[in-house]
Amino acid sequence: xxxxxxxxxxxxxxxxxxxxxxxxxxxxxxxxxxxxxxxxxxxxxxxxxxxxxxxxxxxxxxxxxxxxxxxxxxxxxxxxxxxxxxxxxxxxxxxxxxxxxxxxxxxxxxxxxxxxxxxxxxxxxxxxxxxxxxxxxxxxxxxxxxxxxxxxxxxxxxxxxxxxxxxxxxxxxxxxxxxxxxxxxxxxxxxxxxxxxxxxxxxxxxxxxxxxxxxxxxxxxxxxxxxxxxxxxxxxxxxxxxxxxxxxxxxxxxxxxxxxxxxxxxxxxxxxxxxxxxxxxxxxxxxxxxxxxxxxxxxxxxxxxxxxxxxxxxxxxxxxxxxxxxxxxxxxxxxxxxxxxxxxxxxxxxxxxxxxxxxxxxxxxxxxxxxxxxxxxxxxxxxxxxxxxxxxxxxxxxxxxxxxxxxxxxxxxxxxxxxxxxxxxxxx
Length: 428
Ligand SMILES: NC(=O)c1ccc[n+]([C@@H]2O[C@H](COP(=O)([O-])OP(=O)(O)OC[C@H]3O[C@@H](n4cnc5c(N)ncnc54)[C@H](O)[C@@H]3O)[C@@H](O)[C@H]2O)c1
Description:
Layout: E1 10-15, H1 20-33, E2 37-43, E3 62-63, H2 66-73, E4 79-82, H3 89-98, E5 103-105, H4 113-123, E6 131-132, H5 140-150, E7 157-165, H6 170-174, H7 194-198, H8 200-210, E8 221-230, E9 239-246, E10 251-257, E11 266-272, E12 275-280, E13 285-290, E14 295-299, H9 305-317, H10 332-345, E15 348-350, E16 356-361, E17 364-369, H11 372-382, E18 400-401, H12 408-415
Parallel strand pairs: 1-2, 1-4, 2-3, 4-5, 5-6, 7-10, 8-15
Antiparallel strand pairs: 7-11, 8-9, 8-18, 9-10, 11-12, 12-13, 13-14, 16-17
Helix pairs in contact: 1-9, 3-4
The chain binds nicotinamide-adenine-dinucleotide (NAD).
Nicotinamide-adenine-dinucleotide (NAD) binds near residues 19, 44, 45 and 107.
C-alpha cells in the first residue's frame, strides 16, 4: 500500500447526495472548515442538479453517472466516499480501485459472503486500503479498554453480549427500494436487516471485543445458533436472537430488533472473570463493574462518528495512521455471522398478531413485540432462545458452522414466492 504525504486539503468526491450521502456532504463540509479536505465533485442519477439539497456544496461539478465522475477525476482525487445502497457497493468499490482512488465505503460492504470474497480479491489491487464506515472503533477509550482486556487486567473473557432494541417504522422500510429486502435483482444476497445493517455498528463492536488475537482482531464465528423473526410487513427479518462461538471459544450473544417500543436499551457487555465492562448507549461512559463492588467510569466524549472516521482515513492516506479503523477484511466476521444466522434459523418466523402491539413511532406505524426485553435479557444471560422461552415456532435454531452459509442463497430463492408481496412466510 502506498500513502500520500500531503498536508494540503484532500480532494474528495462523494457518490450520492441524499440519505446517508447527504450526511457525508455535511460532515465533509465541517472538515473543509478545518482545512482537512475539499469536496470537488458529486454525482447522483436520481436528482436534478438544479435542486441539490442544502448541505451539498453549491456549484461543485455534478455527474449523473459515478463511473464518468471517477474516469474524469481519477488522477486528481485523493478519496471517494460510497454512501449508496448496499447492492451498489461492490461495483463502486471495484471502479474506485480500478481508477486508483482510495475508497471510503459505507457499512456494511455487502451482506453476501461470496460478494465479499470477490471484493477482497479486487481490494488486493488497491494502492490504499479501503475504509469501511463502521462506528465506535474510532473511540480511543474503547480501544484502550480492549488493550487492558488483552493484557488480562479483567481476568479471562467469559462472554460478550449486545442488546439492541431500536424501533424502525413503516416509513423507514419504505424510504428506499432495498430496505428490508432479502435478495438483489441478480439473485445475490442483500439481507438488509437490523443485525447486518441498522445496528451492525454494535454487532461489529461485539466481535471487536471478542477478538482475542490483538487489538485489531475481530472474533471469527465458528458455530452459530439463531432464531429470526418478522413483525414488520417486509421480506426480511427485523428481530434476531444470535449466539456464536468464536475461534477463541468465546460466546457472543446478540439481540437486535426494529420491532419494539422506543427508549429501549442498547447495551454492550463484556463479561470477564474479575469485572464486567458495560457500555450503555444512553450515557457517555464505559463502566467497569468490578467483582469487589467498585465501579470505574471512563468518559466517552460525544463525537461525530462520520467525522472521526473521515479524519482517521485522511490521516491514513497522508501517512499518519498505519491502517483504516476497519478494513474490508475486518468486516468478514460480521458478514459470515449474519449469513450463518439465516442458515441456523432455517426460516424467518412471523410473529403472531397476539404477540404484537401496534404503536406509532415518529408519526408512522411500527409493530412492537410484547415482552421482547425480558425475553432478550434471559437469552443474553443464559442462552435460552425464544423457542425455549415459550415462543411457539416450528423449528428451534440449530447450531451451524461456516459451511452452512453456502445453502442460504438457494434456500432464499426457493422460499420467495412473490417478492413484490412484501409479507412472506419465507423459509430460508
Ligand atoms: N454510518 C451510518 O451510521 C449510516 C447511517 C445510514 C445509512 N448508512 C449506510 O449508507 C448506505 C446508504 O444508505 P441510505 O439509506 O442512505 O441509501 P439510499 O437508498 O437512501 O441511497 C443513498 C444515496 O445514494 C444515491 N444513489 C442511489 N443509486 C445511485 C447510483 N447508481 N449512483 C449514485 N448515487 C446513487 C441515492 O440517490 C441517495 O442519494 C448504506 O450502506 C447504509 O447502510 C450508514
